[in-house]
Amino acid sequence: MEVPLGSPEGSEKCPQSPELVPSATGSTLCTSSRSESVWTSASRSKWDIYHKPVIVVSVGAAVFLFGTVITSLSCFLTHNKNVYKMSGPAFLSLGLMLLVCGLVWIPIIRKKQKQRQKSQFLQSLKSFFFNR
């Protein structure tokens, strides 16, 4: 498959093709590798931004607690002791992994939000000075 050569700003422009449908305003639909949230400037609520890592942290904590209960059952119950000894640490490790992944995800999102705000500010300054 042949890729047409373009300018370095090729990611910002979209070539016209027959598959693209023009809208009522005259602009064309363009598929891009960038997410839609980059193009929309509407602010989102904290829940919209952080709901995925909060869910991962919650599920991780629940699985970790479940693993703790299962592991402690192996100390108190005598029947099926081997099952508790094998499945308890598995739930402990899975819960801990999800908990840590969610807790690391939150600062990453914060850093991206700061970068996005800085980028939007620089873009507005650039357009202010160069579009005069």
UniProtKB/TrEMBL annotation:
<dbReference type="Pfam" id="PF15099">
    <property type="entry name" value="PIRT"/>
</dbReference>
<feature type="transmembrane region" description="Helical">
    <location>
        <begin position="54"/>
        <end position="79"/>
    </location>
</feature>
<dbReference type="GO" id="GO:0044325">
    <property type="term" value="F:transmembrane transporter binding"/>
</dbReference>
<dbReference type="GO" id="GO:1902936">
    <property type="term" value="F:phosphatidylinositol bisphosphate binding"/>
</dbReference>
<keyword id="KW-0472">Membrane</keyword>
<dbReference type="InterPro" id="IPR028068">
    <property type="entry name" value="PIRT"/>
</dbReference>
<feature type="region of interest" description="Disordered">
    <location>
        <begin position="1"/>
        <end position="30"/>
    </location>
</feature>
<keyword id="KW-0812">Transmembrane</keyword>
<feature type="transmembrane region" description="Helical">
    <location>
        <begin position="91"/>
        <end position="109"/>
    </location>
</feature>
<dbReference type="GO" id="GO:0005886">
    <property type="term" value="C:plasma membrane"/>
</dbReference>
<keyword id="KW-1133">Transmembrane helix</keyword>
<protein>
    <submittedName>
        <fullName>PIRT protein</fullName>
    </submittedName>
</protein>
